[in-house]
Design goal:
250 residues; alpha/beta; 41% helix
């Protein structure tokens, strides 16, 4: 595995459902570790702030209108909202720049039917047509699974029902979201090992050709386990951003 820290990605737009720890984790990866510029606006604050970094790689980090996945269910309404709120101030172009949606698989707030529908629809960060770009990336049961995977081997064998339970576990273990070479490589390997163990891919390089269907396959595996045990395997698709942008070479 090679982490290409010199990779120029241009402008990339990431929408998250939550303010923390999503913003903190993404900032640690893309700004503090990779050195990219991050322009961000939280849902709770009208102020736009910027973390200065590479002028060739910029992350636009925004919250969705609400933390419920319903807020992106109506695509036209969502992008109308984005254009009205951010297009001018942040120079956002959601048809020519990669777009990612980062959500938790919350079984209480994010209904199974809508999640499955959006996984079938939001399959590419960069469409080849005039349609809006968008790749939906889920964390099971929450974004803290990324932190767990960066700090603990075989983390994907750990299971929780709700994000709050995982948060307590992370806190008890005193794991933090700081990122270095070792932690990031481990987080990526944990994700790839899960995919291979569950026969989603046969070898790591397969992931480059299957990013459009991996989310739905993971969802079905997770739902089957949730039906049996009322628990999710702890994994986060957040690492797919690094793979999709070819920052990671396998």
């Amino acid at each position: 595995m090679i982490i290409n820290k010199q990779k120029r990605i241009g402008k990339v737009i990431i929408f998250t459902e939550g303010e923390n720890p999503e913003f903190e984790i993404i900032e640690n990866i893309f700004h503090h570790y990779l050195g990219y510029t991050i322009t961000k606006k939280r849902r709770s604050n009208k102020i736009i702030t910027e973390l200065q970094g590479s002028k060739y790689s910029k992350i636009i980090l925004l919250n969705t209108p609400t933390s419920n996945i319903d807020s992106i269910n109506n695509e036209s309404e969502f992008f109308d909202y984005i254009f009205k709120e951010f297009a001018i101030d942040l120079d956002i172009d959601t048809t020519n720049n990669p777009v990612y949606f980062v959500f938790d698989r919350d079984p209480i707030n994010n209904r199974q039917g809508i999640v499955e529908k959006l996984l079938k629809k939001l399959t590419s960060s960069q469409n080849d047509s005039d349609e809006q770009n968008g790749l939906l990336l889920l964390s099971y049961p929450s974004i803290e699974s990324f932190t767990l995977s960066a700090n603990e081997r075989d983390s994907f064998d750990t299971k929780f029902k709700l994000g709050k339970d995982l948060k307590e576990f992370i806190s008890d273990k005193k794991y933090n979201s700081d990122i270095n070479d070792i932690k990031l490589e481990q987080a990526i390997n944990e994700f790839l090992n899960f995919l291979e163990q569950k026969s989603v891919i046969n070898n790591p390089s397969d992931i480059f050709e299957k990013l459009d269907v991996i989310g739905l396959k993971i969802f079905k595996i997770q739902q089957a386990n949730y039906s049996r045990e009322n628990l999710f395997f702890c994994i986060s698709q957040l690492v797919e951003i690094l793979i999709d942008l070819q920052i990671i070479e396998l």
